[in-house]
Amino acid sequence: MVPAVLGGVVGGGVVLVLARRHIDALRAVLAAAATCLALALGWYFTSWIAAAGVVAAILVYAVALCWIGGGRALLAACGCYLVVTIGAGAMLYAGLDAMG
Fold it and tell me: What is the predicted pLDDT for the residue at 59?
């Protein structure tokens, strides 16, 4: 959560500095606040996708360790992590793209 908030604050600060040169102060502050919120929420939800991938990989590793042994179980867990994170990222991208 902390990196997401820090990234949002930094992004909002950059937008505020750049926008104040071209638009009035109130609109620059609103643009910075919107940027801060969007970046913070985006990074926060992305971190939850990665956390879900780690949990799925741990479960796959535990089950695969019982069936196929250590080396291939680790490979299966890494593959599971990639599939979960890439699949969730693709669904998130498609959902955001469908919104407009």
Answer: 92
The predicted-structure confidence for 66-83, as pLDDT tens digits, reads as follows 888 777 888 888 899 999
Is this structure's pTM higher than 0.70?
Answer: no
Per-domain residue ranges of the chain = 2-99
Neighbours of 85 (CB within 10 A): 19
Percentage of the residues of the chain whose pLDDT score is greater than 90: 6
The DSSP-derived string for 22-91 is TS-HHHHHHHHHHHHHHHHHHHHHHHHHHHHHHHHHHHHHHHHHHHH-HHHHHHHHHHHHHHHHHHHHHH
| CA distances, 50 to each of 4, 56, 81, 83, 87 (Å) | 13, 10, 8, 11, 11
